[in-house]
Design a protein that fits this description.
The complex is a heterotrimer of chains A (534), B (189) and C (352). Chain A has 534 residues and is of the alpha/beta class. Chain A has 14 helices and 25 strands. The longest helix of chain A has 23 residues. Classes of the chains: A alpha/beta (534), B mainly alpha (189), C alpha/beta (352). β14 of chain A pairs parallel with β1 of chain B, so a sheet runs across the interface.
Chain lengths: 534, 189, 352
Amino acid sequence: MLNLLKNNSLSCTVPNQSALVVGNGLTASIVVAAIKGVGLDVTHARFGSNSSTLFHSCDNESFITFLDALNEQLPTVEGPQWGPTEIVPSENGFVVTFDSGESHEFGSVFLAIEGALKPAPKDLPAEVTTITPDRPTASVVSSVCFLLDYKEITNPSIGAHSIRVALENQMAGGHSFVLLRQTPVKGLLGETLYEAARLAGVRFLRYGTEPPKIERLSTPIESSARFKVSVVDIIESGEEISFDCDCVFVGANPIIERLPDGFRNLLTEETDQQGFLIQDSVHCLAGKSFHRGVYCVGPSSGCVDLFETMMTAASTAVDAAAWLNFANAPQSEEKMSVTEQCVRCLTCIRLCPHSAITLNAGASRSNVKVSTVRCMECGICVAECPRTALDLNSFLEDGFSSLIDRLKTETSEDAIVVFGCYRSAGHAISEINLPRNVIFFPVSCAGRLSESILSATLATRVKGILILGCHHGNCRSNNGTDWAGVRLANMSKRLGSLFGKVGAISYKTLAPNESARMLRLINNFSGSVCEISN
Amino acid sequence: MFRFTGDASEKNFLRQVIDKSGQNLLECLQCGKCSGSCPVASENVPGPRQLVAEILSGLKDEALSNPLWWYCVSCGTCMTRCPVEINMYEVATALCEIAQKEGVQPSEPDIHLFEEIFLKSVEKYGRVKELRTVATYNFRTRHFLKDMDKGIILMRKGAISPFELLKGWKKDPRVSRIFEKVRKGGQGE
Amino acid sequence: MSDHNNGQVVIVGGGIAGLATAKLLSENGIPFAIVERSYKLGGHTKDWACMATDNCNRCHSCAVFDYEDFVTSSPHGEILLRHELFTVTRSTSGLRSVGIRCIDSGAERELPATALVLAVGFEPFDPIEKGFWGYGTVEGVMTLSDLNRLMRLDDLNKLRPDNGGPLNLAFFQCVGSRDKTIGADYCSQYCCAAAIRAALRTIHQYPESKVAIFYIDLQIVGKTAQTLMDQAQEKGVRFLQGVPGEIQPIEDGGLQVIFEKDGQNVVERFDWIVLSIGQRPSSSATAIARITEAPLNEFGFFQTRSQSDPVRSPLNGVYIAGSCSGPANIPDVAMNAGKVVSAIIKDIEQTI
C-alpha cells in the first residue's frame, strides 16, 4: 500500500521535500513564509474559516504597522480546504489522504491553527470580560481594572497587552489598575513597558492567596462606575483596598477549541499539563513535537506572542529542513533486523514511540517493516517482542548473551551489574571511578532491558542489578525509562520465590550531569545488596 | 480599609511628594530592601516600602500619619541598598514639610519640643549635652522617669556621666555665632 | 542545501548557544567552525546540575550533552578549543574571513567565513560587587551557581545541620538584575524558574527542608510555569514578596535576615542564603564588539536589528545567538539558535 501511494504522489518531484501546513489566519501565513524561507516546498491546507488572531501587542503603533506590513509580505498560498483527512506516518514522511481520496506524501506536517480564549471565570460578574487583542481599547478615558493571574498564571503576552492599554488610558487622563500575582510581562521589552506604566502612575496591586473581590454595582453611585473592586495588597499593610471602576477585564489564556481531523491520532499523548499541543518533554523544544517531522506553532501550543511565534516558526522550519535532509539522505544500513520468527502480532507497532514500524501488507505474506530514518534504536520493541524476532543492529542481543556468559564464570562473589542508558548513565560514568565489584553495561534505552535479560542476569553469580534510566519526561523514547520501572516492579514481586534474591534489583533515574549522584546510587545499592545477602 | 477615589487629590499628593523630594517614587520596584535594612523600622514602625506604597496610592492621610518619616535618622542605608536609588531621607523631609504646612499632628506629639531643646543645647554648648537635653525634655513633657532604665545603662558604660550635672557645662560661643548668622541671613555658609 | 555554500559559518563561543547553532547548521549541511576560548565545550550549562525530582523538571541542563555529542561527531564542523577571534576581514557585501589565534601557542590562522555567529554568552553577576549581600564575607551566603555545584557534586548533604536535620534555605531573587545602580535594570529571565527548581530539588532530596523564596516579581513564564508554581505550592515552598536588605551572621552559626511582611518588619533565621545571581554581559563582549564592529546596546549586550529580527546584528553577515543579546534561559537559547540558522540560510540563498 505504501509503495502504491508513493508512486501516486505527484505533488512535487522529490515527494517528501515538502511540508504541509494546516491552519488558518496569521499563524499559518507566518509558518508558510518561514518554511519557504529555508527553501522547502509548502502546501497550505486551510482549516475552518480565517479566524481572528490572538496575538497581543506589547508595543502599540509600531506593532500594528508591523502587522500590516507582515500581512502584506506574507504569501497568500492557495490550498485545499482541510476536511476529514487521514495522516499516516510513512517511512520517511507522512502520507496524507484528503477527503477527495487523493493521497500525497509530505516530509513534515505543521499544525498552525489559531486558538481561542477561555471564557471568563464563572465566579466573576457576567459583565467582566476577557482581554482580547482588540478589547479593551484605550480610546475611552475611564477607570479600568485588569485582573491578571486569576486562578492561573496569565500568559505574559496578554499581561503586556493589558499593561499597554492601562498605560495609554492613564496617559489619556484615565485611571488604571492592574491586579496581579506575578510579573505580568516577559523579556526586556515587557520590562520596559512595565516600567513605563509604573512611571505613568498605573496602579499595580499584588494580591496573595486571597483573590480580589469584584462586585457589580446595581445602582451606580456615580454616573459611570459599574464595579467595586476589593483587594488585599500584600505590600501595603495587608488591609483591604477598594475602589470603583467603570470596567473590569480578566486575563484568560488560550485553549484549543477544535483540532483538525487527522491530528488527533498523530498527536496522541502530545499535550502538556495545560492541554496545549506539544508536550513538556525536553525533546519537544520550540514547537517540535515528539514525533519527528510534526510541528506545532502558535496559539495551539500556548503561544500568543507574535514575535515568539515568528521565532518558533523560523526555528521549526530549520528543524524541518534538517529532518528532511536526514530523511532523504541515503541510509547506509538497516537499524533493525526482523527474523522469520515474526508472527505479525503488531506489538512492536503499537509500542514504538517513534512511529518507526509499519506493517508492509502483502498479498501472500505481509511483514513488519522498520523505517531506518525514523528508528531511534531504543529497542523497546525488541524487549517486548513475544517471539524475539526483532534485534537492534547496534546493540545486539548477542551482547547481552555474552555478558551473561561472562557473568556466569568470571565474576567475583560480590559483583553487581549496572545497566545504564547510554544517554544519561553512559555520559555520567566518564567522570567517576567505578568500585571494583561493579560491571557497567551501557544499553540503548532502559526500556530495552527485557524481563528475560534481567532474569538471565540474576540467575548468574551476580549479587544484584541496578538499572539506570533517564528521568521521567527526559527519555528520548518517551516512555522507555517508564517501561524499565514497570518491568522491575513486576519482577520484584516474583523475585523472592525465583532466585532468593529479594531486593537484588533496583531501578533509578539519572541525568548525564549527575556523575556524583550515580556513584552514590551505585554505592548505596551495592551496600544494600551485600547487607541483604549477609 | 483604604479606598481609592481616583480624585485629583490622590494624584496631586504623589506629584507633590515627588516634586518636593526630587525622588521619583514611581520607579520603585517594591523590592523591600529598604524596609529590611531600615534601622528605625520595627514592630510598631512600618518600613519605607509601605510608606512608598501609601504615597504611590495617593493615600495622603495614611502617609502623613505614618510614624516612619518622623523617626527617620537620615542614615541613608535605604538609598545604598535601593536598586533605583531612591533617597528616603529626602522623602521624609518632604513629608515633614507637607505635614507642617497642613498642620498634621506628628506621630510623636512632642517631637517639635525635642527638636527645639536639642538645637538649643547645640547652640549653647556647641554639641548636644545628652543628659541635660533629656532632663529638660522629660521635665517639660512631665515624663520624669522616661527612659531612666536606658540612662542607667548608659551611665554604667560611661557614655554619659552624672558628674556633668555637678560640673556644669562649658559654653561654646563659636556655634552660637553660626546660629546667629543663620537667623540673620536665613542661609548658612 | 550543502551545495549552496561556498564557505563556512564561524561560531564564536562553544556554550549552549554555539552548540545549538552548530547542530542545526550541521543538520542542514552547512559547514561550521566553533571557536572557543576555554578547554571545553558547554560553557556555563556544563556547571549546572540536573533539577529532576520524581520527574524531569525541564531545566534543560542535560540538553548540552546531546548537542555536544552531535556537534563533536559532525562531519561538517571543526572545533577549535583554546582559540580566540582577533580579526575580521570584510568584503563589500559582507564577510570574507576571520582571523583566529591559539591562546596557548599564539599561532594564527585565517578561516574563510560566510557568516559569523557571536555566541559569547553571559557573565554571572559577582555579588562581591555589592558588599551588603555578604557574599565572600559572611559564611552561609552562596550563589545559585554555588548551590548548583553542590548539587552536581551530590554534596547537598553538606548544607544540613550537624545533627543531620532538614535544610533551612532562603533564595534571594534579583541579585544583580533589576538594579539600576549597576546598569542592570532588566530581568535576567532564568533565575525565578531556576530558584524554584532548585527549591523543589532540595525538598525532594530532604523532604523536611524549609525553603523560602524572596522575590520582587516572580517572572516565570512559558509552558512549565504553572506546573512549577503548583508543585512549589504543594511542597510548601514559601514565596515572600520583598527581598531582605541585609544578612547578619548570628552567634549560633545561622543567618538573620529582616524583611517586611504585612507592613511589619519580621526577623527570621536561615542556615543558608542563596543569591539568585543575574546574567551580565559577557566579559569578552566589548573586545569582540571592537574586533567585529558589531554594536552593543545600552546594557552591554549585542544589539540586534529589531524585535522582529532578534538574531541579526545591524552589521551584515554577523548574527547574534543566545544570551549575548540579552538574558535568556536554555529553551529560549535553543529556539533562538533555530532563528539564527534560518536567517543564515535565507541570507546565503539571497547572495547566491
